[in-house]
Amino acid sequence: MASPDGERNQNHDANDQSTEHGQQLSAELSAMHKQQAAAGRNDEELTALEPAAFAAWQARETANFPRNIEVRDFEPKAIGPDETLIVLQRHPKYFRRTDGEDQVPGALVDPVGSREADAKFFEEFLAQIPPNERDKVDVLFLGSDTQYHGQGRRSFETAQVAQEAVASVLEAHGMSPDNIYSHILNYSGDDAAAGQPAQHLVDPADRSGFNPKAGAPEPMAHLSEPNVFNDSPEFIEWLKQQTDGEIGLQFFIAYEEDQFKERRQAMGAEGPDEIADRTAYAIHLMADFAKQYHADHTDRRLLIWAGTHYDTISPLVKRDVLGAPKEQPLGVDYGAGITIKVDRQGRGSTSVSKKDYVMPLAAEPPTYRRPTAEQDQ
């Protein structure tokens, strides 16, 4: 089964926080998130708040949280030598119908337009770098391995389109094909005229059996859509019966808010926390790769561009960046996403709606793992 790309546009007011929710939130939010969201209030002051007062404070704070990550805010951060920019991008619009009326289901509707937008993004990234340092920029592409009804892979194609866009920009800047190969780290020695070895980030054990041709983006299972749609059909059917009888708005509200967490866990299904866990771990792997890459290649800038889904970006940003509860809606526009700067000291930062935040980079391996690779068969 493939997810119908579960972005919800619910109208319920997530700012009406109860005392019980305040108690739960007080326990769940880390001290860093509390301090960050409290706009200067220290940990001791915040922890000392009574649960009811904390709930009331949280209600006021959530009123200022963004409701959507917009494509107009999808901009590159400036980085210096020995620094990295990680891009997590939601796929653009894709063909969804499977009755033969659409072209390939799961394929991007407008890859040409997406390529132009990606080229503009990369041009803006290069414009922040002195001209005499632009030949010291390397790029690695990653993509979710999710397959839509056994056909197109919208997020992997997003990474492919971005890779094509970057190659076209480098060529427009007068770079020869040989040099382009050496700056895009996905190419293997057999494919790169310059002999640049592939820089594999993804452990083959974490793949789902999807092995694209050499030189393509690296498929990364940690960036996939919710595994519940492929791994837990019993829970899907149960949750449908508890909501509106179908995979619709109420279904996604219940799933994203984890309204039936105990039952979900008992049935072994992945939930929003597990999705945020593996997305955080994917970012950790990227940052760890970047650290080693810069140690081996000094004075260079690294861009890691990953195609993924709304379902991975939203719960991660809500929990680890905004410190928001699951009940707080956070949409992600098609083609939008977040950019994460990793500085020389290995510290992460990002921005949402043009507001800067700390981005945690440390993460443990996720506890949930896909039991099979049946979605790729």
Question: Care to describe what's here?
Answer:
- The protein has 377 residues and is an alpha/beta fold.
- It has two domains: 15-64, no CATH class; 68-227 and 270-369, Rossmann fold, CATH 3.40.50.
- The chain has helices spanning 19-28, 31-37, 43-47, 51-62, 111-127, 154-172, 177-183, 228-231, 233-242, 249-256, 261-266, 272-296, 310-322; strands at residues 68-69, 84-90, 137-144, 218-220, 301-308, 331-332, 337-342, 348-352, 355-358.
- The strands form two sheets. A seven-stranded mixed sheet has the order 4-3-5-2-7-8-9. Strands 1-6 form a two-stranded parallel ribbon.
- Strand 7 and strand 8 form a beta hairpin.
- Residues 9-43, 189-197 and 372-377 have low confidence and may be disordered.
Could you give a quick summary of the protein structure above?
The chain has 377 residues and is α/β, with parallel strands linked by helices. It is built from 13 helices and nine strands.
